[in-house]
Amino acid sequence: MKIICFDLEGVLVPEFWEEFSAATSIPELMKTTRDEPDYDKLMKMRIRVLKEHNLKMNDVHKIVSKMKPLAGAREFMDWVKTKAQPCILTGSYYEYITPLVAQLGYPFMFANTLVVNSTGEIVDYKLREKDGKVEQIKRFKEAGYEVIAVGDSFNDVKMLKEANVGVLFRACEALKKQEPKMIQAETYDEMKKKLEKIL
Predict the structure, then answer these.
(1) Active site residue 38
(2) Per the CATH hierarchy, to which homologous superfamily does domain 2-13+70-196 belong?
(3) 82, 95 in Cβ contact below 8 A?
(4) 48, burial (CB in 10 Å: exposed 0-12, middle 13-18, buried 19+)
(5) Closest CA to 7 of 125, 186, 127, 169
(6) Widest pairwise Cα distance in the chain
(7) pLDDT, one tens digit for every residue, the chain (199 residues)
């Protein structure tokens, strides 16, 4: 049996913090790991900015409720389910991505957790584990599964290389040049055709 592990944001749904930044007109929240590779520093900045603007979990939910998966993502995931076991491995948080994952047909998901106080303020975050994507793929392989991983950014490279097969989806040109031997796709139809050859 094969498992296909997907990064979530940028692969199946829009980048949440970019959407949140646009909706609130707070440019600082547009920053992602592409801009700040130190994830702890990035998340602490986000939490600080939310506090400064008195934005709480219900404000996050309002924006998520208007978001949709990327065009074609649901149909692609429905196809994946006929060929392999899909699994989402994301650095995002259950507290805001669950409604988006529901729109993808509820594939199994490993995510992180936000710490929200009694007034709805986001005060901290908890990682499921360090290098959670890589560690989960290792466990799948130890259990006898062949693992295909799909990601779009530099912070997905370790996951893609740990999998039996890695696929870059809509990656930036610099990443494509860095990993020229990795399978690459720009559309769901193109990824489907390439996956069909290995499923």
Answers:
(1) no
(2) HAD superfamily/HAD-like (3.40.50.1000)
(3) no
(4) exposed
(5) 169
(6) 51
(7) 899 999 999 999 999 999 999 999 999 999 887 677 788 999 999 999 999 999 999 999 999 999 999 999 999 999 999 999 999 999 999 999 999 999 999 999 999 999 999 999 999 999 999 889 999 999 999 999 999 999 998 889 999 999 999 999 999 898 999 999 999 999 999 999 999 999 8
CA atoms within 13 A on the CB side of 63: 20
Six token digits for residue 77: 């995931």
Q: Quickly name the fold that domain 17-64 has.
A: thrh gene product, domain 2 (3.90.1470)
Chain-centroid distance, C-alpha 164: 19
Minimal CA–CA distance to 29: which of 54, 48, 10? Answer: 48
Told to judge if 7 belongs to the known catalytic residues of this protein, a careful annotator would answer yes
Q: What does pTM read for this prediction?
A: 0.92
- For the chain, give every domain's residue range: 2-13+70-196, 17-64
Which token pair is 167?
Answer: 């696929």
For 91, residues 6+ apart whose C-beta sits below 8 A from its C-beta are 39, 111, 112, 127, 132, 133, 155
**Active-site choice (7, 152, 156, 162):** 7
Q: What are the beta bridge partners of residue 110?
A: 89
